[in-house]
Amino acid sequence: MLSPPPERIEMSVSGYGWNLLKKTYWFNIKPVTLRIDPFKTKHLTSKRLLSVMSEELNGIKVNYLIKDTIWLHFERKMEKELVLTIDTSKLNLESGLAVISPVTMTPDKIRVEGPESIIYRLKDTLEIIIPSGNINKDFNEEVKLFEFSDLVKMSAKKVNVSFSVGVPLPVPMDTIPIIWPDTLLLKGTPMFPDTLNLRI
To answer: CA triplet 139, 143, 145: central angle to 5 degrees?
Structure first.
């Protein structure tokens, strides 16, 4: 249910003496139970509520309800598995340092459950945002996950993230020759360079 129904309903009643006092104050007050189909019933009219209240409060007269209609917001539940991801390019590392190991996350996926209208719109992945700034050493901490809504249950609200930080090694460069097809040659002069530098 997206929003809870009211716990109390105000009404105008009339009756006699002790019977009225017993039914409307603190003596043996029991909650009124309404049985409804949550996927068909969108609201409760004062007419229906008046009928139920009259039966429950036998012995006194229910004149009218203060609130005309009670709206109900039911929705089917839905579950989904989200894969946790992290974009290392967004990490705030100290100048000259880089992530030099695979990033490990425990757990690496979570399950969420909630109203269909919310869960259906979620992506298949959930990006982890690490708030720590100026990271200058190996990282191994619990990171809080983004919480979508109070209506959404998550199998985990924190994830342990670990990775190594250090000075990146220089990448060697190699030069390889390029042989272009004859169709790309113009009067014996290559239109493109005959070598290419690659970092391997």
So the answer is: 150
Q: To which residue do tokens 């036998």 refer?
A: 58
CA dist 65 and 53 (Å) reads 9
- Predicted TM-score (pTM) above 0.90: no
Domains and CATH numbers, the chain: 11-71 (no CATH), 77-166 (2.170.120.40)
Long-range CB pairs of 171-177 (<8 Å, 24+ gap) are 171/199, 171/200, 172/199, 172/200, 173/197, 173/198, 173/199, 173/200, 174/198, 174/199, 174/200
- How far is it, in rounded angstroms, from Cα 115 to Cα 2? 7
Question: What tens digit of pLDDT does each residue of 176-192 get?
Answer: 666 656 655 555 555 55
